[in-house]
Every structure is written in structure tokens, then in C-alpha cells.
Amino acid sequence: MSFNIYKVNEELRDFMPPEILELEEKATWGNPKRGVMDLPYAKELLEEHSLCAGCPESDAFRYILASLPNPEDTIIVNSTGCTSLVFPHIALHTVHSLFGNQNAVASGIKRVLEYRFPNKVKDVVVLAGDGATVDIGLDCTLQSFFRQEKITTICYDNEVYANTGGQESGLTVKGHVFKMAPKGKQWDKVPMWQLAIDSGCHYVVRMTVSSPRRVEQAVKKAIYVAREVGPTYIHLYTPCILEIGRNSDEGLEEMKLGDKERFAFFEYMTPQAEEVIKRKKEEGLI
Amino acid sequence: MGNNGVYSGVNKSGQKIVSPDYLLFEAPREKVFMTGSEAVKEAVRRASVDASVSYPITPQSEAAHLIGELWVEGYVGVYFRGESEFGVMSEVAGCSMAGARIITTTSGPGTLRAMENFPMWAGSRLPIQLVLMARGVNSPLSIQPDNLEISFLLDTGVMIWHAENAQELFDMILAGFVVAEKTDVHVPIITAIDGFFISHTRESIMIPPEDIALPPYNPYMSPTPIIDAEIAPGRYIKDPFVMKSNYISYATHASWQWEVRAAIERSRPYAKHYLRGLVEEYGDPEAELVFVASGTAASQAKEATRLLLDEGIKAKVVKVKSIRPFPHQELLEATKTAKYIIVPEFNIIGWLEREVRAAFYGKSNATIIGTPRVAGGMTMPPEIIYRDALKVLGKEVSYVL
Ligand SMILES: Cc1ncc(C[n+]2csc(CCOP(=O)(O)OP(=O)(O)O)c2C)c(N)n1
Ligand code: SF4
Ligand SMILES: [Mg+2]
């Protein structure tokens, strides 16, 4: 465990901002049973955020960060997009490098960490938007699945290029009018969860973030399976309330609608993944 | 440092760790006859390399295969084939961020495909080594030697060295890690050669024994934290993401770009030491006719000075070993007596000529002539350089081509 790096140097304690002191004192380190139920009590790994007020991506961040089983040894690789503005606020080692290369960067990190620390568990998680994961980065995403990289990939699907002002993406639904699709999108939403299955992911889940507990379960399953077996993929509906004209208190309602239709909960696992999940459940870790 | 410059201990491959100076300058060397690609293998074998990621493209593929063999032999820790040069250059970035000494290789279209990564490497202060075996750039498709691609890399924020032959490539690869990994430098290093001419031809080179190697990379000497969750601060993003709309962010971004360039400048004394100078002089020290060249064009220019001497014309060659940082001072010093500076190049646009002109503007009265320009796989016989030099001097060309 590396939570030593969160310990504050005694000589500097007087000068440290309170949120850094709280990370040492009140965040949950070294406890794989941590989860979303800690949210009201423990120090969160996200220090505020810079998304639009009420953006469901912020819920997703909070639930995911609260659910990482091994945060003190978890590295998150991000890509450009609304999500990237949040990363400087996350109390982990994280990476932003380019738009769409996140799974390639993560592959390099994971392999080298396995080589440098053969006796330690270091989890590598990718977290990026739909444009990054499925359009510009699809090659790197799928190739990391083909290569069976032991990483968890999380896609925040808001069905649009949000950060650049609302352009059609491959995950926009057919017919929807966005910028660059002024006559409405001409082709179907890409079924990325299915591509993940076909490309070799061992655990795949498609869902909204309307239920914190369900997000926790998915994150833990995906990370444990990635550790032992191979790539895992989490597809989350995090609607861009700004681009679909929803108010800041309407994100949850939009996701609950999603739960009933195109983001109805869907889970897939290979027999190897099932074995890991069963064992982790028996150990009380999921 | 212990006896004979031997550092204590062995690396992960069981080789004795020696000082860079011992490995490069003092260790006994043995003569071997090998290709440039094989020289890459032998340099990597002695470099305590942690990782390498490959992708096929002529003429660099063989070097990448041979690094794969080293992985099988246990000299390299991580090795695989990536999905494209864009993917590979991102994968090696990940390897470097996680604390590995990493090397990769590419050529021509591969370099251009990977392009977005190079400024990212520099901005992330990753001391990645790329061995660039230059070839033509599309279109039309060509696999032939041509070093146009180096011009695209000049302003990406990486160090660039240009080797003349396999011996220099061997030594530059070892020196490249040492210089690029210095804490006050810590930027990428591209060690370039002219593809085929060096990668695929055999020459005699002198190499130290294979049971000694460079000290392993110490990632905790990096000026920015490594991404391994082992080093403070716990809240750390690589790289400092400053895309907020305020003047502090803008100023941060601007100063970071300055800092990357400043880091390259700080490599000068180290590079001077380990390369034995950023330039190399050959021929008549007082010559009025001076060729400034890099890579294999320097070899050809050296031959041309011999032909010119037959005509009673004294000439010299100043070979530029480091393109980034560019050796302005050394070049001015080495061309003090020059009336004519001729820059022969293996590319159509003359990027070295541009560099020389920019460096000499207002500082030298010599006439600068960029010729010949050989590209697309054509060879540069010394007779052509000789002919062009005679024309510049207004002399009759008597040598029969
Ligand atoms: C190579 C490259 N192309 C385009 C962009 C511009 N760009 C930045 S963010 C972004 C949209 C990101 O969309 P998505 O991944 O869906 O994330 P979101 O903002 O919707 O969360 C785009 C197109 C870029 N930064 N780099
Ligand atoms: S633009 Fe959309 S996705 Fe981005 S922060 Fe605002 S609501 Fe969230
Ligand atoms: Mg999006």
C-alpha cells in the first residue's frame, strides 16, 4: 500500500491546506470494503469539481472514486473532454496526455508497473468520454482489449462531444440534431458494450449512474476481474444536461428514463470473470 | 564508483553495472562487423532497458525485431507490438510515466503518424529514446533513404542527434539515455540515422563487452513525479492540466514551454561530454571552403574534400552531431576561416541549411549555399558535392563523373 504518500510532512503541517490534511486523516485508505456508503462520512478523493452544476458526470466521479477497492495504488488515465477538467481535483496519481490515446497510455503504465512491482497490486483504470473512447480513440480502446491488457475502461457516455460545444458523436442516437449533424444523425448509436464483448473484455456492464450502489458493484467487479483475468469495460450513461436542455436538478430523472430504455442495466461476464466475482463475494469484498 | 569505474551491483539482467564514462570511454572494446540494426541491438543490450514497444515499418523493423530478441533473452523487461505508431508512441509514454527506461524505433510515415505524441512526450518531461531510421515521406510512397522527416521534428521540444554511421549510433544510443535522463534535462531524445545507408549496411564497429551495462534508470530522479502511486504528492496529474480560462493558466502554459526548451539547452554540457563535442571537424582547419553536414551527408562530404585536395583545393567538413540543441557557437567557431559554406543534404527542403542560415545571420560573412539536395532514395556520390563546390568557387569541373 502506498498511502504513505498521503501522510503530511510534520514540518509542513502548519502550512498545509485543510483539504490535504483531511486526505490523510479522513479518507479511506487500505480498506477494500470502502464504498459509496462512506460518502457522507469519509473524505472524498474528489475535491469539488469544475463541471456544470448538476452534471451527472460529477455523480459518476464521486461514486467511482468512493468505490475503488485500492485507491492508494490506483492510477487513472483520462482523455480530453469535460472529464479532464476534473482530474486536477482528484487525489490520486492520474494522467491526461492526448485526446483518444488513453488506452494506449494505460497499457504502457500497467505493463511497466507489473514489471517494476511484481509483488504489489496496482490497478490501472481508464476514464474518458464517448468521443474519446469510441470515435477518435476506438483503435486504441479495442486494441487494448485485443491485447488483453489488465485494465478497466470506463466510458462516460453523454452521447455528444460536450466539451467542444455539442457535436454529434458515434454514440449519439440516430436522428438527433446536434452540431455537425444539422439534419439529424444519419446512422445508429454504436453499441460499444457489444464491441467490448466481441473484442475480448471479460466483464462488461452498461448502465446509468442513477443508483450509487449499483455503480459501486460494477466498479469493484470490473477492477477485480481486470486484475486477475483481463480487460473489463463499464459503459455509463451520464447525460449532458446542458446539451439536451435539462435543468441542473434533472440529471437523475433523465438517467432514470435511461434505465428503462437504451441504458437498461446489462451485464456480461466470461466464466473466468464469474469465478473471480464469486470468490470476491465470498470474501465479502463485493 | 568502485574499481575500474564499476558501480556496485548488477542490473535486472545480471550484467555488471558500470559508470556511463566507463562504458563509453574506458571499457575495452572489440571489433565486430555488423549492420546498424544490429548495432542498435548491442547498444540496447548494454543499456539496462526496461521496456520497448514496436511497430513494423521499413527500414526500422529489423532493429525492433532484434530488441524483441533481447526481451526473449532477458535483457528487456517489457516488449510488445502496438497497434500503430500513434498507439506505440502513446504506449511508450505510458511506460515512461510509470518509471521505465524505454526505447522505440520508427521511420518516415511512422514518424508522421505518431506526430501528436512528440510534443506530449516533451511537455510530460519523458526521457524516451526514439531511434529514427529516416526514410521518405508519402506521397508518393517510398521506403528509400531521405531524412525530410527530421525537419518535422525540429520544433517538437525533443533533443535530436544525428549519427553518421553505425559506430556513432551505438555510442549515441547509450549516451542518449544518460543525457536525456539527467534531472535538469529529462526530455525525449531522438537518435536519428539515414535509413538503409546505416541500418542495412555492415561496417566494423568497436563495442564493449556484453556483461557490463549502464546504471539502471532511477525514476525518482525525475524532475516531475512518476506515475506509480509511490511518490508524493498523492494528488498529482501528469501533466499539470492548466486549461482554465485565466491568465495564471496562460502564463503557466507559456512558462512550461520555455522550460522544455530550457531543459534542452541544459543538455549541452552533458551532450558535449558524452558525444565528445556537438560538432566534429575533418580536413584543413584553415579552409575557406567548409561543408556543414550531418548524418551520411557528412561521410560523403569528407570524401569530396579528398577529391578537392587532388585539385589543390583545401576544404573541411564540420559535422553537426546534435541538431537539438543546435551547436551555434561551435559552428561559428569551426567556420571562422570560411568564405563559402556548403550544406549538402539528403532531403529536398534543406532543413540543415535553414538552421545554418538562422544561426549565421548577422554573425558571419561567409556565403551559404545549400547543395546538393538528394532525396527519394538517390545516392549522393562525392563527385556531385565536388562538382558543386567547384562551381561555387567558379572553377572548371575537370573531374569526369
Ligand atoms: C486530436 C484532437 N482532436 C480534437 C480535439 C478537440 N476536443 C477536445 S475535447 C473534445 C470532445 C470530447 O468529447 P467526449 O470524449 O465525448 O467527452 P465529453 O466532453 O463529452 O465529456 C474534442 C473533440 C482535441 N483536443 N484533440
Ligand atoms: S457540458 Fe454537459 S457533460 Fe460537460 S459538464 Fe456540462 S453538463 Fe456535464
Ligand atoms: Mg461525450
Characterize the structure shown.
The complex is a heterodimer of chains A (286) and B (401). Chain A has 286 residues and is of the alpha/beta class. Helix content of chain A is 34%, strand content 13%. Chain A is built from 9 helices and 7 strands; from the N terminus they run ααββαβααβαβαβαβα. Chain A has a 7-stranded mixed sheet with strand order 2-1-3-4-6-5-7. In chain A, β5, α7 (212-228) and β6 form a beta-alpha-beta unit. In chain A, α2 (56-67) crosses α7 (212-228), α3 (102-116) packs parallel to α5 and α7 packs across α9 (271-282). Chain B has 2 domains: 16-221, Rossmann fold (3-Layer(aba) Sandwich); 279-392, Rossmann fold (3-Layer(aba) Sandwich). In chain B, strands 5-4-6-7-9-8-16 form a 7-stranded mixed sheet, sandwiched between helices. In chain B, strands 13-15-14-17-18 form a 5-stranded mixed sheet, with helices on both faces. In chain B, strands 1-2-11 form a 3-stranded mixed sheet. The radius of gyration of chain B is 21 Å and the shape is globular. At the A-B interface, β1, β2, α3 and α5 of A face α4 and β12 of B. β2 of chain A pairs parallel with β12 (236-238) of chain B, so a sheet runs across the interface. The complex binds thiamine diphosphate, iron/sulfur cluster and magnesium ion. Thiamine diphosphate is lined by residues 80-83, 99, 128-132, 156, 158, 160-164, 169 of chain A.
